[in-house]
Amino acid sequence: MRPNLDRQLLAAARNSRATRLLMTIPGIGAITSLSFSAAIEDPANFKRLRSVGAWLGLTTRRYQSGEVDYDGHISRRGDSHLRSLLYEAAVVMLTRTKSRHDSSLKDWGLKLRERIGIKRAAVAVARKLAVIMHSMLKTGEPFNKLASVPA
């Protein structure tokens, strides 16, 4: 039964223009692209690109009380399955893609990994991936490896 389900999933990914567009990003496969396009539905629902990362729970949680003010871990709001798929795609991008200078996003993530570690760098790359994927769905343009990393 499982091979049949896999074939149906790949067929659905091939038939959708949005998922084919998202799969141009290194590390993004059929499951991640289908999950992202299904979760976002209409890219116009988000007024700002950065709000996609917050909607998925990939932004830092802030705690303020009196004189105490610190940024904690990620907020973990939103779709946990999609968040874990984006995290996995970010780890694949940082560790398993061949060329070191494959994209400006990977270069940024590798520099970040040296400073703050692989787990935090992967979360940051996952948030940027969500922003880039949303932008790609909105504009209809494929992934540009040499484009600068958005904020």
Task: List its traits.
58% helix; 7 helices; 151 residues; single chain; two-stranded antiparallel sheet; 9% strand; mainly alpha; globular
Question: What features would you describe in this structure?
Answer:
There is one protein chain. The chain is mostly helical and 151 residues long. It has one domain (2-139). It contains 7 helices and 2 strands. The chain has helices at residues 2-15, 17-22, 30-40, 51-55, 80-95, 104-116, 118-139, and strands at residues 60-65, 68-74. It has a two-stranded antiparallel sheet with strand order 1-2. The longest helix is centred in the C-terminal third of the chain and has 22 residues, at 118-139. The termini are far apart.
Quick structural overview:
By secondary structure, this protein is mainly alpha-helical. The chain has seven helices and two strands, in the order ααααββααα. The termini are far apart.
Task: Give me the count of strands.
Answer: 2
Strand-and-helix sequence, N→C? HHHHEEHHH
Number of helices: 7
Q: Rough shape?
A: globular
Into which percentage range does the β-strand content fall? 5-15%
Structural class: mainly alpha
Distance between the termini: 43 Å
Number of domains: 1
What about the largest sheet?
Answer: 2 strands, antiparallel
Overall pLDDT level: 82
Estimate the helix proportion, in percent: 55-70%
Q: If you compute it from the alpha carbons, what radius of gyration comes out, rounded to the nearest whole angstrom?
A: 16 Å
Q: Strands of the biggest beta sheet: in what spatial order? A: 1-2
